[in-house]
User: Fold this.
Amino acid sequence: MKNLICQLAEKLAQGKKNVVFTGAGISTESGISDYRSKGGLWDRFKPIYFDEFMSSEKSRMEYWRRKCELYEQLDDAAPNAAHNALTELNQKGLLDMVITQNIDGLHQKAGLPDDKVIELHGNTTRVRCMSCDAIVPLDETLDRIKNGEKAPNCTCGGYLKPDTISFGQSLREQDLNQAMAASQNCDVLLAIGSTMIVYPASMMPDIAKKKGAFLAIVNLSETPYDSICDLLIKGRAGDVLPQVVRQVDAVDAVKLTNS
Assistant:
């Protein structure tokens, strides 16, 4: 694995357009449940589709009940070594963009600025009105639920919903377009902790690879891109990425010595 880490560090240290694509695997190390594994969210709860949320008060009430149940886990979660390593890469000027499928906001908690993170599936720490598109503080909405409102509405009368993409709900066009542009123009795309099977997010590694980018994967489970990627590291993101950053420092030190 050491040789693979060195190869990845050398690619990133070139300082061109490095884009990172992250999935649930980077956040499970922070104690956040994923969706597909045994005991994950889909194993515990039947998904509530977007049209159900919009057409049924009962579905909206159940949606918010689950949100309250999961809130403590998300609220207590802290960035792990992998999130912090990506922040270090950004501070070194070696990170163009992070495209994430995650909704936990841990990249920003770790110190990445909002304009460096494209959240394809939204962010569960925000609440959005489905009518007027207003953003409402999550804590304020949860307080209303604690006070007896089981499915809060916006002041305009629209339905309030965590600002995440539900089954049957389209991704926000601006986010998708920005992610596609970043993937098309990158020199390196590093995919971390994603199964890369959820469409359309799964297009990003494919777009990058077809445009000639160096595709690297850090993941514990298999992905559809394992056989075509340029570099594959089977390991925990929190173990691998700090080693990559240390090796980037070593590469930089050699450059300084030789200059």
